[in-house]
Structures are given as structure tokens and as C-alpha cells.
Protein 1
Amino acid sequence: MARRQGSHSDITGPRVRAAALRLFARHGYAAVSMRQIAGEVGLGAGALYLYTPDKQTLLFSLMHDHMQELLEKLPAAAPDQDPRARLEAFARFHIRFHLDRPDLVFIAYMELRNLTPENFAVIEAMRRRYEARLEEILCAGELAGEFRIRDVKLTTMALIAMLTGVNTWFREGGRLDREGVEAIYRDLVLKAVGAE
Amino acid sequence: MARRQGSHSDITGPRVRAAALRLFARHGYAAVSMRQIAGEVGLGAGALYLYTPDKQTLLFSLMHDHMQELLEKLPAAAPDQDPRARLEAFARFHIRFHLDRPDLVFIAYMELRNLTPENFAVIEAMRRRYEARLEEILCAGELAGEFRIRDVKLTTMALIAMLTGVNTWFREGGRLDREGVEAIYRDLVLKAVGAE
DNA sequence: CTTGGAACTGAACACCTGTTCAGATAGCCT
DNA sequence: AGGCTATCTGAACAGGTGTTCAGTTCCAAG
């Protein structure tokens, strides 16, 4: 056997990535074999190498695309705008973006240690760029006298940790819906920076 | 060759656990082999099985002992005490405990998915017991009118995520010392629940 | 209807995996 | 001095790992 009916590179490629993502998130990069990924898509193991040069690149590519999308979709910095409104927008964006991509968020955090040092450096730099955007908002609010923050850097990390944590417990169809969650987190964030 | 000079079960045992902990935290459970662990301690692979029935139990044992210590050392619930003081004590305890055991905290969170379902259930139950302690404090403060909390359950999860996040960025000898970190986190927590 | 090549298979490679166990050794007790 | 046993080795087992590649099949264009 070889090429199968109706198969196309531009269909199989995304399917491979989706399967890898699912399995990496479920069981961890190191615990998932190329044969398992291939099996999920209905391929032999060898066919995967038409879509990725190797397993490491497959992981890196998933993480890199995710971080890129995160940075692109983040509302542009608007230094003239009200810091409080900017902080609210950031919190809302973060929660929505993360709730929509639980698997990607999960591996982008959990699988950092399975990246080669070079790949790790790339992802880490992107993460810092994202954090810097929040830090800038907190700085602006502090300077404008709208926030009362004891330590901007620490508060940045604390807020991101708090917001990202939403993925560890939120389940669709539970007690709260997305809007409810967004509102409560916005509330927590505003209070934590002394804006309420 | 066989038994070596000065070797004792009660010395080698802890050394095996320490090596496993270090390596699991560094590279992940699935990515670490029994031979690597044994090598770290200067043993052949077979000798490990004098100290653990298998690899899975080694991981579970590390996580279980960690969670047990967490629950034991957590200041006892004191429902008559001031909720604000109890919350401060909880935050301080959490930060200190976590800063003192970064590797254990790390694997207790990261390696949950590498536990068998039965082992996972045990650890998860312990984690919930810990979270319930914070939830109880928040409830008490809300009822006493000391806190203003929109959703106790969500706030519990958010605060724990925020506090646990300290391990992702804190490095000894950095800009802030432990006391400084504790103080700022206490501040953030109190503000988030509307106690300031 | 032929042909070019994209899409894929499956065997093979060299090596690693967790775990078992017969055998070897070193220190303690008598 | 002799023996006992806790401690450990290293080979062996059955199977899995990422990756390569010669060969096969099917589709589409000429």
C-alpha cells in the first residue's frame, strides 16, 4: 500500500499537528512516540517525516506558533488610553485566549524543559515580550496614580500566574460560564493593583 | 563486585530519592531512565529495586510524601481567629513552604499526568484538602464581613495559582529576598479579597 | 493512456526501556 | 576464623525509541 484515497499534504499536515498537540498535552512530549502520533492520524511512522524534520521540531513548531499568535492577537499597546481600561482589556484577552486553547497553553508551559537550549531561548524570549506588555500597563497605571503597586515586576508575574491558572480548573458547562469567569478575574486583578 | 565500602540502606535509600527528585524535576519523569537515576547515585540499575518496587511508585512516593508534609505543616484551622490573620498566615506559609521545596512543588504539579489513575486520585484528593483549607478561610472572612469576594471557589483557585507561581520566577540572591516576597504577596492577597 | 511525482508503507538500524535474578562481595556477629 | 546476610552487580529479557529509505500506490496533468 502507499498513497491513500483523497489524501493531501495540506490536510494531513494539520492533522499530524493536531494529533501531536493532543497527545503531548495528554501524556507529555517524552511519553508520546512518533508511532502513536502516526497511528492517531492513520499513518505509518515514516510518513510523519514528510511533515516535520523531527520530533523536537514538531514540539517547537507548536509552541512557537502558539506564542506568535498570542503576541499578535494581544491588543496593541495604547499608552494614551486609560491604564485601568488597558488592564481590563489585557485580563479579558488573556482569559479568553487561554480558555480557547487549553492544550496549547498547557504544552507551552509544561514542555519548556523538553526543548533544546536554542529552542527554549526563542520561546522564553517571546514569553518575556508578553509579560513586558502587562508590566508596561502596570507601570503606566502606577505613574498615573491610578494603581497602588508595591512591586511592579512581582505583581506582573503574580497576575499572569493567577490568570493562567484558569485552565487548571475551568470546565465548560460548569457552574460559571466564560463571561462570569472573565468578570470575576477582572475584579480580582483590579483589586490586586489597588484600582478599586 | 558487589557491596561497597560504607554503604547502608538508610543512606542509599534517601540518596536514590533525592537523585530521582532532581532528575524528574529537571527533565521530567518520562524522560528520565532508571539507569540515569542509578548512575547519579553510583549504582547499577538493578540496585534501585531494593529501594522502590518500580519507577511509578518512586514518583508516587515522592509526591505523596510531599503532599503529606504540606498538609501536616499547614497551620491548623482556627475558626475563632481573625480571618484576616488566618489568610495572612496561609499566604506566608504557602510561600515559604514552596520556596523551600521547588523541585517537589514542581513535580507534584507537572507529573500528575504520569501517575496511574489510582495514584492520581490519591494525590488529587490531598490537593483538594489543601485548597479546602484556604476556601474555608475565605468563607469565614466573607461571612464575618471582613472580605468582599465575588466567588469564593474561583478566588480560592486564583489565589493558589498566584501564590504557587512564585516558584517560576523567584531566584535566591535576586532583587528581592524571601521576606520581601512574602510581604508583597500578602499584600496582593489581602487586596484581592478586599481586606485592605 | 501514459507518465511524473506526491504521498505513503514497512522493514531495518542502532540503541534505549523497565524489570528480574543468579551470583558476588563486604561488613557484622558469634 | 567462619559464616550470615544485607547490599549490590551485570547480563539478560522482551519490547520500544526516533529516524531512514527503497519501494509501492494513486492522482493529476499532458
Protein 2
Amino acid sequence: MLKLISKIYLIMKNISQEDYISVIYKHRDTEGLIRSTTIADRMSISNAAVTDMLRKLSRDGLIYYTKYKGISLTGEGEEFAVNLVRRHRLLEMFLYKIVNMPWEKVHEEAERLEHGASEELINRLEEMLEFPDYDPHGDPIPSKTGKIPQARSALRLDYMESGKTAVVVRVNDYDHEFMTYISSVGIIMDTELTVKNHLKFDNSIVLSIHGKELNISHKIASNIFVQEKEGEA
Amino acid sequence: MLKLISKIYLIMKNISQEDYISVIYKHRDTEGLIRSTTIADRMSISNAAVTDMLRKLSRDGLIYYTKYKGISLTGEGEEFAVNLVRRHRLLEMFLYKIVNMPWEKVHEEAERLEHGASEELINRLEEMLEFPDYDPHGDPIPSKTGKIPQARSALRLDYMESGKTAVVVRVNDYDHEFMTYISSVGIIMDTELTVKNHLKFDNSIVLSIHGKELNISHKIASNIFVQEKEGEA
DNA sequence: ATATTAATTTAAGCATACTTAAATTTAATG
DNA sequence: CATTAAATTTAAGTATGCTTAAATTAATAT
């Protein structure tokens, strides 16, 4: 029989484990590998702490780990990670659609809530939300069975040609200020916009949204993803 | 400048602190005092751990603590505790009314969520719920300013006379099975019921609910609180 | 091939809350 | 008043994840 320890140690362990697996899943390369230094950077902890924890995650069967080699998720780890993503994004959706929090705040709020939310709560929220496929920033939400909707094929806004019209289908959600700004100028999910002009001197872009013109930087435009509307010139 | 430690230590500290203050607030006597052994029992931890933590809570200004004396909350501790109660009960209300979770599950789910939920989220939920004064079990919900609605004056169900009609205004929410059972027989908040008979041989009570008769034990009846309806015999 | 640099691991120790066992203090009892 | 019991504190150590500094390994430059 397992030795019972105080619940605070279990909470601590679970939170850390979830954070590590989330970071590995999000920041691994196209071959599914990540370096320990990347994990340390993303989590703002020491390299040594990462080495320690990788040994434990390996022992728990969630990752493949050999010294000095890249780290990758096992099948079980993959499933665990996909479930964490699902929980996070459903919580974000709930906070955005039902609670009406500004979308630049939902990411951090969901980060805190996801550790305590039960599977039952997540499933009930999914039902309330009518089984959404994408979160407020356009990222796909895995289903209960782990099936991931396809990321909608999208074009970076800065790659759009002048004169074309498109709708916003995804934005990068890592920067608070970025998201606050773009929503303040009317750029949110499903917003329709037309590129009026590309300005060469600073690579900024002139857009028309609901008949109103505005100028956004190249940096901002490169973090917004759109789908062009068909049959328009 | 404060030494920065990893966020996991802060999370751990906050969770513990909140748990201690909640227990002190809930289980203190009518004079506002609690013994350390009571805290240890309620939290399933050792007496020594409690002594350690009490010193810290006192250092942080949340409690009055002298060795071998009873423990009590400071003004700041009281405010902190009332806010914890508010958050817990609004979360319970949200889970019950909006998410439609069974009321025997909302207590534990709220226990887990309350540590991560921000003040902003709690305030938004309160607004969505239209500023409720009582939680699903009938306990009062403090307002944002700390004002506590009066507990509705209520009678224990087992004290009701035969022939009288009443509505359920509060139930004790500490026992999972109890709450599952009474809701399965149709006894929830605001349920109207009539006491038909008190049986002497086992002190049980015969009730009529929606025209259906049922028998409940004295133990169950003593954990249900009602308000008699006026003008009926 | 060698030297240097960067990445990672190891070893020792720390942050927070807890446990166990022994000691101290208080309360209850005869 | 003495004794016993119960409550609480103290001291030493543990559970979990982390930090710092030194050592090891791998990658890179010459």
C-alpha cells in the first residue's frame, strides 16, 4: 500500500508535472524533441531542476529521456499533454464566451484554474459551450477522446496582398499587451478586414475594418492569421 | 527588495494559508477561539505542523497567537476569511446554477478552484449569478465589501410539528452521501414539504413532498433547516 | 587534433509545509 | 497537593521541487 503523504505535496507535484508536460508539448520542435535548456527558460527555473524532474517524468512513463539527448513524450505523455491543452482551451473559451473576460486575460486565468478543475467540470463546460473546435485565439481544442481538430490553414496577415479581404482565424496569445491592443482597435476572432496598402518605409500595413482605416506594424501583423475570403478582388 | 523564489513555493504557501484561515473561521467557537488540535484534526495534519504554521500566520498579521492559548483571527484575518468564504460560495453557486453540477459535488470542486480563481473572475461570476445572498446549501454569501447577509432564521426539520408545512432554506453540506440521498428523494433548496408524523420507535419523520410520502431518519432531519409557511395548519 | 565554448548533469544545499518523537505546559482527577 | 492525562511545543527529520556551483559531456572553432 502506498504511503500516504499530505495532500499539499501531491498538489505541488501535480502542478509541476502538468507545467512541465505542457511546456514540452508546446515548445518541442517539428521532430517532437525539446532541449532541457528550453524547458528551464520557459519555466524560469534552473537547468538542474529540469534534469531532476526529467528523471522523474521518465520514471513515471511520461517522457523518453536519456542524458544529453533530446526529450520527447511517450504515448502516455502525449495523451496527458493533449488533455491538458483541451482543459486549458475549454477554460479559456468558457472565460471568454460565458464569463465575458477580455481575451488577453483568459490565458493566465485558465493557467491557474486548470490545476484544480475536475474532468467532470471540463466536460460540462464543453457541453455548455456546444463542443467548440477552437479557442478564443483560434487554436484547436482536442476532444474528450483526444482527437484534435485541424488547425485552420491560415495566412500571416503581413503576407496578404493589397486589396484582398480576409477574416481573422487565429492570433498568437503569448503577449498580453499585443492582445489588448489589437482588440482595442477591433481585431478579434472572425473580424473581417481588407488590406489597403503595404508601406515600404516601415513595413507597416494599412487595413480597413468596418469601413475604418488603421495602420498596424509589421510585427503586429505577423502575429495575426487570416483566411482570405473567396471570390473577391 | 524581496528575494524571488520559484512560484511553486508561493502557490504552496498560499494554498496552505487559505486552508488554515478557512478552517479557523469555520470551526472557531462562539467566542471566536479555536484550539490547535481542532485545526490539526480538520486538516488531517500533525499538531506540530499547526504550531509551525500558527507562528507564521501570526507573523503575517492574520491571527492572534500565544503559546497554549486559543487562536483567533485579527481584523485582517477576518477580512481574508470572509473573502475566502465569499469566493467558495460564489463558485459553488456558479457550479450549481450555471454548470448544473449536482450539489453534493460542488463543495469539493469549489475547494479546488478557489485557490486559482482571481478576484476579477469571482466578481464576474457574482454578476452573472445576479448577486445571490445564499449558496446552494443556504449559507450566506458575503459581498465584495465583506457584508454578510443574515443567516435566515430556520428551524431544524426534526423540530417541526406534525401537520405543519415549510420550505427548505439550508442543509449541512459536509457529508457527500447525505446530500446525494436527500436530493435523490427530492429534498433540495426551497423544496416545500409537510410533516405528517413523528414516529416514536425510531424518532424518524414521515414527510409529504409534492403529494408523495416518505420517511427520513432523525439524523437526516437534524441536518435540514426549514422555514415554516405562514397561515397554514 | 586540440582548445574553447555551450549544454547538461551532479552534488550539496535551500524553500515551503509537513511528520515523528520527546519535552513542556496546562488541565483534570483522586 | 500529588498524580495523571491531555494539549501543545520543540527538535530533528522528511516530502516535494527548486537553486547554486562545480564537474562532465557534446559541439564548435581553430
